[in-house]
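Task: sequence design from structure.
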């Protein structure tokens, strides 16, 4: 009986069997993370090249070709990814993603009750995002956004709670259009009043 208690043969395989599931999940998680980081880098490079190409005159006629270029580069890494594209133009870099300026006279944090605002896009109403869809005109700042969604390389979502079976990346860049014709932007924005 004492010989059986002192017998150490087989202990290593039992210890490995206990640690193997955790080790496998860790390794698969590292593979998944690495794949997502690499895909993100490919997306960043592709979006930068497409954005630079879109700042030249006549690029608006090639929107499908520019989007196809980004799609092709992303598909070299994530072949079954779905991509969506958005372009917004602004009169200046300082307006990108910011609401139009207004004077909050009553201090309630909303543009209302006839408070004056700066109508940056000249549409007559206060906008939370004054960007216009599309490429814009000469000297406009263009926000180019690409959203990529693809199934995870490793089905880690089945083992870790809170994980989605698909992974989504969103990347954006802002560049100024080349001065190929007269700018359509107002040099001094019009003023308006909030409803």
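Answer:
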């Amino acid at each position: 009986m004492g010989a059986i208690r002192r017998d150490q043969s087989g202990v290593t395989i039992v210890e490995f069997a206990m640690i193997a599931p955790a080790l496998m999940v860790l390794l698969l998680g590292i593979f998944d993370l690495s794949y997502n980081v690499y895909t993100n880098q490919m997306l960043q490079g592709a979006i930068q090249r497409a954005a630079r190409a879109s700042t030249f005159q006549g690029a608006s006629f090639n929107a499908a070709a520019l989007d196809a270029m980004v799609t092709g580069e992303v598909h070299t890494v994530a072949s079954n990814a779905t991509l969506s594209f958005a372009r917004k133009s602004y009169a200046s870099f300082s307006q990108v993603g910011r609401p139009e300026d207004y004077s909050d006279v009553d201090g309630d944090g909303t543009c209302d009750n006839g408070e004056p605002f700066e109508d940056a896009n000249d549409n007559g109403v206060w906008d939370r995002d004054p960007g216009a869809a599309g490429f814009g005109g000469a000297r406009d700042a263009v926000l180019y956004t690409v959203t990529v969604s693809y199934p995870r390389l490793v089905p880690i979502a089945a083992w870790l709670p809170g994980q989605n079976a698909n992974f989504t990346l969103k990347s954006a860049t802002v560049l100024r259009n080349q001065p190929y014709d007269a700018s359509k932007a107002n040099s001094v924005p019009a003023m308006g009043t909030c409803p």
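The chain has three helices and six strands.
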